[in-house]
Design a protein that fits this description.
This protein is α+β, with helices and mostly antiparallel strands. The protein contains 3 helices and 5 strands; from the N terminus they run αβββαββα.
Length: 124
């Protein structure tokens, strides 16, 4: 009988992609806290019932991305599903700008109807 030894995988092993995502989510949480949003925190993974990456702003879904290529269409579809799952009023995809760790300089993308709703609610 042939026995094959598998590498001893460390339970704490995290892929480079997962590390980038976690780092971006943490950066956004820290940035929001610096702006006075003291209740924001990273969400635990939820699988099919995903409700976004950051909790703590009721009615708002935040989906954070840190990718080489922008895939806005796919990201906005993901945001729509998460907004339904969360029963949220609005949502935004925050994606890292290449070359900067300053979250305030990153991009925020949302459907125009969501932006317009915010504009109306602000009285414009």
């Amino acid at each position: 009988m042939l026995r094959v030894s598998l590498p001893n995988w460390n339970e704490n092993y995290v892929s480079k992609s997962k590390q980038k995502g976690t780092s971006a989510e943490t950066a956004v949480v820290n940035w929001l806290k610096s702006k006075g949003r003291k209740h924001v925190e990273r969400r635990a993974l939820s699988g099919l019932l995903d409700r976004g990456d950051i909790a703590g702003i009721p009615g708002v879904v935040l989906e954070i991305k840190n990718h080489q290529r922008m895939e806005l269409s796919a990201w906005l579809k993901e945001l729509d599903v998460e907004m339904i799952n969360d029963k949220a009023d609005t949502g935004v995809v925050i994606h890292k700008k290449k070359g900067t760790t300053d979250v305030g300089m990153w991009y925020a993308t949302m459907p125009v109807h969501g932006w317009y709703k915010l504009l109306e609610e602000a009285g414009y």
